[in-house]
Amino acid sequence: MFPDANGVCNLQVLLDGNDAYWATSRTEGDEPGRWSWPPRV
Questions:
Q1: First and final CA of the chain: distance in angstroms?
Q2: Whole-prediction pTM
Q3: Pairing between strand 20-27 and 8-14?
Q4: CA dihedral for 3, 13, 40, 27, sign (positive or negative)
Q5: Dist. CA 2–CA 9, nearest whole Å
Q6: How far apart are CA 35 and CA 6, in angstroms?
Q7: Reduced 3-state DSSP string for 4-36
Q8: pLDDT, one tens digit for every residue, the chain (41 residues)
Q9: Distance between CA atoms of 14 and 40, rounded to whole angstroms?
Q10: 27 Cβ contact list (under 8 Å, min separation 6)
Q11: What pLDDT was estimated at residue 36?
């Protein structure tokens, strides 16, 4: 996954079993409906 210059990318979420969800054109940020990198532990 590599965001474009505006922080927009398409994401594939793997669900239980063989199901998957495509979250298309998501922007980077902390608000609901946006994506962010998980914190390093």
A1: 20
A2: 0.58
A3: antiparallel
A4: positive
A5: 7
A6: 13
A7: CCCCEEEEEEECCCCCEEEEEEEEECCCCCCEC
A8: 677 777 788 989 899 999 999 989 898 888 888 888 888 98
A9: 21
A10: 6, 7, 8, 34, 35
A11: 85
